[in-house]
Amino acid sequence: GKATDIVGFRRVQIVSLIAHGIFLLVAMQVRDFWSLSAALFVCGFFADAFRPANAVAVQYYSDDASRTRAFSLMRVGVNLSIGLGLVLGGFLANIQWSYLFLVDAVTCFAAAIMLIIYLKPPAKKAENTPKISENTPPLMLSASSSRRHDSIPRKSPYKDPHLLAFVFLTFIGA
Asked: Which residues, in sequence order, are CB contacts of 24 under 8 Å at separation 6+?
């Protein structure tokens, strides 16, 4: 979380995915218990660094009206990838145990590349600040504002290409 505040959510996500992929390849090569434990600890560190940055990215790229749905779609993507990952992992482990590490590393690298290509950098100085726009609910505005919550237009998150791309990238990264 602190790294996200310092360098931004996009960089943290990209570095997290690349570092996780590298240490998965390292973990694939080690043979003794303590080295494997250390490599998997570092893998877990970088894998979990992705989560707070990802939550900030969902907050940044979703508007106030669709934020709950955006987080829900992110969780659906994570849950689907876990379900599919268990099936694929069992299949790969049946063939050769090291394929688990290799395929996971490749998906990390692929997700990092897709993040670099499709998730454009946020505007400077606005990464961790709430966006105020025409669609901002009155609770997010100053007390002097007289706008009503009823006047906020609702847009389906399923029609937002940026959100759908982000959910897809989250699915691949998870």
From this structure: 43, 101, 102, 104, 105, 108
